[in-house]
User: What shape does this take?
Amino acid sequence: MLEFAWPWLFVLLPLPWLLRWWLPASDSREAALKVAFLPELAALAGRHAGIGLPGWKQQLPYAAIWLLLLTAAARPLWVGEPAPQPTSGRDLLLAVDVSGSMEYPDMEWEGEQISRLELVQRLLGDFIEGRHGDRVGLILFGSQAYLQSPLTFDRQTVRAWLDEALIGIAGGNTAIGDAIGLAVKRLRDRPADSRVLVLVTDGANNGGEIDPLVAARIAARQGVKIHTIGIGAPADAADPAMPFGFSLGVELDEATLREVAALTGGRYFRAGTRQELAAVGAVLDELEPAAQPPEQARYAYPLHPWPLGLALVGSGWLVVASLWPKRLTRRRRRVAP
Assistant: This one.
């Protein structure tokens, strides 16, 4: 089915003729000879004399080019039949801690020491890619919580936003409660059995306005299941002299993270390896998808290059045609006896 993205542009169709009538005639400031009987001569020759518009035959090529240009500008689209989009009904928000302590390089990846945020980006990046049919969103939190990406089927974009996350972009503290509150706000209007939050942090709540346990109880009433992940190497393997005054064994509030998960029917994980984070995916795969209205999408194929190309070809032909008779006439005059 043919559709136009901007059909209102066709109201400009009479614009050249209106400008021709409204604008004053140009003054060449050259001497001119006025012939009083010119209309009579034109009538005898079967032609029209005057300053009006040329005949319709002369205007037809220009009108066709103008119509083609307007058609291209209106962006014609060929819209196909609606195609159903597979959805599981699962709505998954990821809340990732980007506070200052996430920069500490106490994690290992393929024999290389990397920061905690880098580990989260690499592990959760693959995790996001595997959420086929799920709506995935991203929250970044530090001293405050921000919705970096709303719930969407575009997993590649969500992963890109996660990969581009920077340490300290949301402040240096850890507002776990605010992150949970923002997630509840975004998930409460979704189907009841599909609301899932995966919260990743390496510290304790020391910022924000909402206590994590209070936020967890609100989430439980709204039917939001929270899986919490404590990021960081084991306490006995960590260097006790950590920047920002953090010590993993003291600062990671595992008790609160466990209780947040328990209040909402989720689970707590300690993520230091790929296998531990894969356990989160296994739990999410066990969730029953909620029934949602089927979504349909129409594929639209742009057609504007065709009228635009025809307009360019027609313009080139008019230029050549306007120059050719003059050259031919000059040559005939030169060879005339």
Notes: The chain is about 40% helix and 20% strand. The CA atoms of residues 255 and 268 lie 10 Å apart. Residues 86-286 form a domain with the Rossmann fold fold (CATH 3.40.50.410). The chain has a mean pLDDT of 78.
